Amino acid sequence: MFKVYTICICTQVDTEHLDLNLIKSLKREAELLNEWTKLVEKLARVFGHLDLINQSFLKKHSLCPIDKTQTKEAFELLQECPSLIMMTVKEHAKRTLNGLVRNKKEPIALSQMNILLILFQCPFDDFDVCFMSDICDMLASLNEQDQDQFFHYLIEPCYPYTTEQQQFKAILDIFQQFVSKRLALSGHPNSDTALIDATKCIAILYRLNEHKKYVSYTEFYNEAVNDQLEIKEDFPNFKDKKGFSFCDYPFMLNPAVKADVLKVESVFQMRHELQDAFFRALFQGVNSPYLVLEI
After folding, report:
1. Is the pTM value of this prediction over 0.90?
2. Exposed (0-12), middle (13-18) or buried (19+): which is 94, by Cβ within 10 Å?
3. Which of 27, 38, 107, 194 has its Cα between 20 and 30 A from that of 172?
4. Across the chain, what does the average pLDDT equal?
C-alpha cells in the first residue's frame, strides 16, 4: 500500500491591509513556489492606495497608531526578497505620497499620516531623495497641535532605540541631514521649498525639546547652515518680514553666526537712523546739537 503525501501551501486569508503575519505568509509561499507575483501585487495594491496603507501595521492600546517594531521587522523580511519587492514598495509609496501632496486642497488630517509613520521605519538608502520633500511639505501644513502629536508618535521608542531621547536624536538627525543636503544642492536656499519645509519641521522638534529637554540645544545647530549662511542676503528677509530667513530660526545658528547677525543688525539700525536724520533735516531743518535755555 502506497502512502500519498500532499504538500499544502497554507496562506493567511487575504486582507486589504498589511501586517507582519501576512507578509511572512506571502514570503514563505513565494519562496516555496519561486514565484513572487502574488507578493508584488499585494504590495503594489496596498502601498498604491492611501486608505489601505493607513490601515496597515496598526497597533491598539498605544500612543502611536502604528506598530513600529512590527513594521521594521516586515521591511527586514522584504529586504531578503528579490530587489523587485522593495522597488515596488518604493515606487508605489512615492506615487501615493506625491498624489496626497499635489491634491491637498484642505489641511491634511492627522489620521492620513500613518503612511509617514510607516515610511520612517523603512530602511531605504535613498529615503531622503524619494520621500523627504513630500514628508516635510505635509508636516509643515499641519496645525500646531497635529504637528506636536505626530512627532510624539514618531519619537515613541522603537528598536534599536530604547529611550525617547535616543529616538528623538535619530529623528532630528534625519531632518538635519536633509537640510544640509538641500543646502549643498540649492543655489537659492531662501526660495527652496523643500529646505524651508524641513527647517519648519526642525522648529517643531525644537518646540517639543523646549518642554521635554530630550537633547542639548546644541544638537539643533546645523553646521551646513552656519558655514553657508549669507547673512547680508538672509537678514533683509528677516528684518522686512518678507520671505524665508534662517534668522527666524536662531536655534540652528551657533554663537559665532549669531554675533555676526547682531553686527549686521547694528549696521542696518545705523543706516536707518541716518536716513531718518537726513529726511528730518531736509523737511524740518537741521536741529541744533546744543541745549538752548531761555530765561
Report:
1. no
2. middle
3. 107
4. 87
